[in-house]
């Protein structure tokens, strides 16, 4: 089922008595989720991604705009009639019910023709439990399980009614680092197996990039960029997106374009064909740096952090906006005798120019 | 190693000493004393003498029509007021939890009876129900207006008195229950309701399958303390029917104990002790049953 979102806007009325200012949680959200894809809504906290999810789910009514599931306009439908499954950040498993009862709960709500016999319910519960691999735990109470297991139960409960759209609100944020890695692959596997269109919300760029077919980067209620993870990473639309994706963060410098050549400070770095003259913000990915004794970009060395496969060189530069610019370099290439001055060549594809005021991308070839 | 342990144990007992002394002197000793009195026939406080030992005190109390009346009244009050007050409190709390405007105001209003003196509330009930030379009481005036002959609630038929008694008790005990239940309801994570909404759960099912189980520990706490409190009812009766409860036929077990100790001619500590122990047994039994039932039903 594809999901089409048209000009979705959500405004919460201001709470302060004296100076009530409306809070625009989601502003003019326009997006189409193709059928059977896994989409990650990504952004810092407070960017409106959870509100967007609640709007798709139906827990919140939009101020403006419409939502379609397939061809059906579901904007006015309450959540139970939309055919969505929602997994909460804290799982929201009913603590007094066993895992089996928890998963069966949505089925027991069915009325009229849709009503199921006990056997049919049990069958569906077993089926959902099998998908998330918790068949052996059905008689436990949620309190007797680990976070990862509870997460699986929550997903099973959301899946048991065969929803058209599966929504996950920060599904991994309550898990420890190792479980997070495991569970995100699990989510990917479940999504592939069931083929259900899935939207998940996260503030962790790595999480979103690693399992999504598409990511939507949001900031202050506005969509910044939509695209396949690699595409967004390789070609960010603005400085915010460039900064938000990638770990370690992109390095930002103040630079200047003159006669289609990029300069930072004294160093003449790259040809930038098609870029207009003037001051620019230069974003350089850490992996863009190639260590070279005769390199064009001259920086002062601060520290070398060894991370095994790679090493990161923390350096200083007079025109750096980033407080600790760093370059990631293959450990084998780093020799012990790095002087106080390091020089780099830059890979042009990993260097982005942004307008100093609007922070929009300036394209060059 | 061993010495260290004995020392620390000694220290622990030293710290416990004040509490142990107080509890022993003012709780354990009197309890045992009451137990002993209840088996000593015709014990006299002044001369500290008694005529013999045995079960006569219990036999007397259990055959005393006043005690039987008190027992009946107490049980009626317990059976009527505990479920009704808890149920009503739950309904009111649910309502309070739903409204947004004026919530604080209503919460305060519902809590007011709790901070009001029992006797002051009794006075209000007098105005509502008591027949005097000048007026028939407000409720009767209303009843007359609807063409009913009216009833004497304070000195009239038994059912009328029990009615006023129960109404009064419910009125007095409800604020505390409302307070406890509203906070219990507010502490249920709203996330559960959201999850239930997405699953299309009907309001009735949300209440019975989610809300009720989640606040069940609090409800059982209220039921158990409610039972105990209602069994020990006395001051409310005095507030409504005066000190001569036997004459009004509205005595309770605690009232009976009090009368036996200090009532008219006064000074039947043996009978009072026996009655008190019977009450103790009844409360203990009921509480045990409650706890057993709650262990099965209450989920935490």
Task: Report what the structure shows.
The complex is a heterodimer of chains A (365) and B (300). Chain A is 23% helix and 33% strand. By secondary structure, chain A is of the alpha+beta class. In chain A, the strands form four sheets. In chain A, strands 6-7-8-3-9-10 form a six-stranded mixed sheet, with helices on both faces. In chain A, helix 2 (99-108) packs across helix 3 (118-131) and helix 3 packs across helix 4 (147-159). The two termini of chain A are 39 Å apart. The relative contact order of chain A is 0.12. With 300 residues, chain B is mostly helical. Chain B is 77% helix and 1% strand. Chain B is built from 13 helices and two strands. In chain B, strands 1-2 form a two-stranded antiparallel sheet. In chain B, helix 4 crosses helix 7. Classes of the chains: A alpha+beta (365), B mainly alpha (300). The interface between A and B is medium-sized, with 24 and 18 residues.
Write the layout of secondary structure elements.
The complex is a heterodimer of chains A (365) and B (300).
Chain A: E1 3-12, E2 23-33, E3 38-42, H1 49-57, E4 64-69, E5 72-73, E6 84-87, H2 99-108, H3 118-131, H4 147-159, E7 165-169, H5 177-194, E8 197-202, H6 205-211, E9 214-219, E10 222-227, H7 229-234, H8 239-244, E11 251-258, E12 261-264, E13 267-271, E14 278-284, E15 289-291, E16 297-306, E17 310-316, E18 326-330, E19 341-346, E20 351-354, E21 361-362
Parallel strand pairs in A: 3-8, 3-9, 6-7, 7-8
Antiparallel strand pairs in A: 1-2, 1-4, 4-5, 9-10, 11-12, 11-14, 12-13, 14-20, 15-19, 16-17, 16-19, 17-18, 20-21
Helix pairs in contact in A: 2-3, 2-4, 3-4
Chain B: H1 2-39, E1 40-41, E2 52-53, H2 56-63, H3 65-98, H4 103-115, H5 118-129, H6 138-145, H7 158-186, H8 190-198, H9 203-231, H10 235-241, H11 245-248, H12 253-262, H13 269-297
Antiparallel strand pairs in B: 1-2
Helix pairs in contact in B: 1-13, 2-13, 3-7, 3-9, 3-12, 4-7, 5-10, 7-9, 9-13, 12-13
């Amino acid at each position: 089922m594809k999901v089409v979102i048209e000009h979705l806007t959500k405004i919460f009325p201001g709470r302060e008595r004296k100076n009530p200012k409306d809070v625009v949680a989601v502003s003019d959200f326009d997006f189409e989720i193709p059928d059977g894809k896994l989409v990650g809504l990504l952004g810092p906290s407070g960017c409106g991604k959870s509100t967007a999810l609640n709007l798709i789910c139906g827990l919140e009514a939009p101020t403006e705009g419409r939502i379609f599931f397939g061809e059906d306009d579901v904007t006015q439908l309450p959540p139970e009639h939309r055919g969505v499954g929602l997994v909460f950040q804290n799982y929201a498993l009913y603590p007094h019910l066993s895992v089996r009862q928890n998963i069966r709960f949505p089925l027991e709500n069915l009325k009229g023709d849709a009503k199921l016999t006990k056997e049919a319910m049990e069958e569906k519960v077993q089926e959902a439990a099998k998908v998330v691999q918790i068949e052996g735990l059905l008689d436990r109470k949620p309190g007797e399980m680990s976070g990862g297991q509870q997460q699986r139960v929550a997903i099973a409960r959301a899946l048991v009614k065969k929803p058209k759209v599966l929504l996950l609100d920060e599904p991994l944020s309550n898990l420890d680092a190792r479980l997070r890695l495991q569970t995100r692959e699990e989510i990917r596997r479940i999504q592939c197996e069931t083929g259900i269109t899935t939207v998940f919300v996260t503030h962790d760029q790595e999480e979103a990039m690693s399992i999504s077919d598409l990511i939507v980067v949001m900031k202050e209620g506005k969509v910044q960029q939509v695209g396949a993870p690699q595409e967004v990473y390789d070609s960010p639309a603005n400085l915010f997106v460039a900064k938000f994706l990638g770990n370690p963060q992109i390095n930002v410098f103040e630079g200047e374009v003159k006669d289609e050549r990029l300069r930072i400070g004294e160093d003449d770095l790259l040809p930038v064909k098609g870029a207009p003259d003037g001051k620019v913000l230069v974003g350089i990915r850490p992996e863009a740096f190639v260590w070279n004794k005769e390199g064009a970009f001259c920086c002062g060395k601060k520290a070398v952090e060894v991370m095994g496969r790679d090493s990161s060189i923390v350096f200083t530069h007079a025109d750096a906006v980033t407080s600790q610019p760093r370059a990631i370099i293959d450990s084998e290439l780093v020799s012990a005798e790095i002087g106080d001055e390091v020089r780099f060549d830059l890979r042009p594809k990993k260097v982005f120019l942004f307008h100093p005021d609007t922070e929009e991308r300036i394209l060059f070839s | 190693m061993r010495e260290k342990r004995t020392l620390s144990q000694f220290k622990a007992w030293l710290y416990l000493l004040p509490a142990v002394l107080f509890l022993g002197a003012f709780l354990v000793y009197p309890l045992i004393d009451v137990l002993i009195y209840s088996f000593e026939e015709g014990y006299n406080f002044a001369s500290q003498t008694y005529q013999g030992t045995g079960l006569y005190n219990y036999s007397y109390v259990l055959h005393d029509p006043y005690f039987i009346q008190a027992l009946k009244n107490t049980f009626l009050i317990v059976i009527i007021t505990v479920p009704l007050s808890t149920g009503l409190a739950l309904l009111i709390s649910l309502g309070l939890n739903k409204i947004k405007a004026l919530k604080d105001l209503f919460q305060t209003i519902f809590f007011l009876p709790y901070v009001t003196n029992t006797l002051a509330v009794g006075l209000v009930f007098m105005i509502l129900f008591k027949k005097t030379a000048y007026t028939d009481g407000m409720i009767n005036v209303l009843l007359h207006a609807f063409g009913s002959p009216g009833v004497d609630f304070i000195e009239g038929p038994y059912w009328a008195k029990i009615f006023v008694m129960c109404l009064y008790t419910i009125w007095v005990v409800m604020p505390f229950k409302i307070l406890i239940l509203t906070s219990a309801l507010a502490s249920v994570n709203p996330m559960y309701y959201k999850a239930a909404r997405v699953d299309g759960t009907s309001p009735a099912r949300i209440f019975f399958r989610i809300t009720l189980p989640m606040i069940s520990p609090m409800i059982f706490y209220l039921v158990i303390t409610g039972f105990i409190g209602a069994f020990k009812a006395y001051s409310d009766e005095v507030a409504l029917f005066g000190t001569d409860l036997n004459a009004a036929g509205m005595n309770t077990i605690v009232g009976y104990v009090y009368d036996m100790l200090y009532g008219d001619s006064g000074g039947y500590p043996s009978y009072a002790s026996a009655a008190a122990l019977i009450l103790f047994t009844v409360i203990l039994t009921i509480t045990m049953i409650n706890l057993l039932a709650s262990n099965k039903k209450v989920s935490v």
